[in-house]
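Mods, move this if it's the wrong board.
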Amino acid sequence: AASDVYKRQHKAFDWMWKSGLMTKWQAYKWMQGKLALTDEQAHIAKFSEYMCDRLIIECNKALENQRIAA
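Not the wrong board. Structure tokens:
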């Protein structure tokens, strides 16, 4: 269901800054860069399921890279 996708992407994205890996502002800038979004487009509440899935994939890649580096 759509609500499941939104919950999963918030969990994945929130980890980026709640873990201390970066600030919340840096996480949004990182997301903009990864997904080629403008400031106007970089609002998670406006994301389609497709964009949520893309964000989850990018966050999971970053998490895996962090684990490898640790």
